[in-house]
UniProtKB/TrEMBL annotation:
Gene3D superfamilies assigned: 3.30.530.20
SUPFAM superfamilies: Bet v1-like (SSF55961)
Protein name, per record: SRPBCC domain-containing protein
Pfam families linked: AHSA1
Superkingdom of origin: Bacteria
Residue ranges annotated for the Activator of Hsp90 ATPase homologue 1/2-like C-terminal domain, each copy included: 18-140
Family, similarity comment: Belongs to the AHA1 family.
Length: 153
């Protein structure tokens, strides 16, 4: 994992021990997303996830704080869907554009390059970036567990 923060952009890379199609499915299917969507200390029930996977389709999640029960909803619209190579969405409240590039490394692993563009000042803080980092770490742990189960069967 490496980070290359700038003022308005944030890029983070993960190499997942799974084929590209599985990684793409995990990052676009509510039944998978419910296992990791949100930073540490939050969870997202499957009924709180809307995925209409097409350009112009909705991507919405309502995360729930594990301790207080407070909810945080993220509403976005998919901008580009090129399964299983590329995915992007724009958040309707903040205008942040999130882009995910899925690179097949030809060794059974997939590199996912996640870039957020146009971050407003409140989303540029180390705490905000750390929150995104924990969400991506949770995704990496989940994808690795799924890949292990699929290779054992």
């Amino acid at each position: 994992m490496s980070e290359y923060p700038t003022d308005e952009n944030f890029t983070i890379r993960y190499i997942h021990p799974a084929p590209r199609a599985l990684v793409f499915a995990c990052l676009t299917t509510p039944e998978h997303l419910t296992h990791f969507w949100g930073p540490a200390g939050m969870h997202t029930p499957v009924q709180n996830i809307v995925v209409d996977l097409r350009p112009g389709g909705a991507f919405e999640t309502t995360m729930v704080n594990n301790h207080s029960g407070d909810e945080h909803t993220m509403r976005a619209v998919y901008v580009k869907v090129d399964a299983p190579a590329f995915l992007s969405w724009r958040e309707t409240d903040s205008g942040v554009l999130t882009e995910l590039t899925f690179v097949d490394r030809s060794d059974g692993t997939t590199e996912v390059i996640t870039t957020q563009r146009g971050l407003p000042p409140e989303m540029r803080t180390p705490a905000a970036r750390a929150g995104w980092g924990t969400a991506l770490e949770r995704a990496a742990d989940y994808i690795a567990s799924i890949a292990t189960k699929e290779s054992a069967s």
